């Protein structure tokens, strides 16, 4: 690491400090932070980590004046109060800061119309957009991708690079887990009707459950909030299922509260699996079995894919798909099927 005694106390770190910490030339640091596609991945990540550790922010004024860019990236999320998005926000923020960009955060309130309107209004404010769990239709997303540099998270698209969190893969793990505990009747508790990932999870749930000869049911759609948990719990109770897989942890936590009020014991009478492993999922009563994934890393990868797309020398060869692994974290909300 650079010797801090070589610059005045309190002075901001320089590109030379980053270069010394990363063990590269200053010109390599400049390329990695301004045109990431021109530097190999291992070196680029080492430089980005050094820049983040030093809180180094490159001067973007000259670059912006010469290129016409704003050096700002907009991150659009459906609900900023949902803890699932906290790690995405942190991951994108840290990665953008290391590259000298400002993050603009927009809550689109689960509305495709607001999302599309935001893209139109911010086209001169941001150099590119990261859409987390986009609610846009395929046609809307295709139109947006033709006009802007876009990367999506958890929203498949043939028109924009995508970071996919492999929740369907962990849905299979959850089904096998519940089946191994003797559950033969399982319910899927659906999230928003406009959610692409909700449709994908249901399709996987339906196909894999039928292949295993399980009786299945579906309730919803429900807003992905704890306040929707009471209605969801009541709906599941009417199905006669002994276990359920829930769209997200917030909804599952709300269900736990309602089932306790009704005297339905978890997991003795009903097992519950959530999704996202948000902060607090392990503090529930009982602690929530849930699907976990590297959410913050998904945000970092999305930024890298977007910055490469913004580099005209490498936009055509930039990565189009990144898949983040998931796994089932088993806690106290699942147990043997009732006799």
Automatic annotation (TrEMBL):
A single MF term (Gene Ontology): transcription cis-regulatory region binding
Swiss-Prot/TrEMBL keywords: DNA-binding, Transcription, Transcription regulation
SUPFAM superfamilies noted in UniProt: lambda repressor-like DNA-binding domains, Periplasmic binding protein-like I
SMART domains named among the record's database cross-references: HTH_LACI
Coiled-coil residue spans: none
The organism's place on the tree of life at top rank: Bacteria
Domain HTH lacI-type: 13-67
Protein name: LacI family transcriptional regulator
Species this chain originates from: Paenarthrobacter ureafaciens
Gene3D superfamilies: 3.40.50.2300, lambda repressor-like DNA-binding domains (1.10.260.40)
Keyword Transcription regulation: yes
Keyword Heme included in the entry's annotation: no
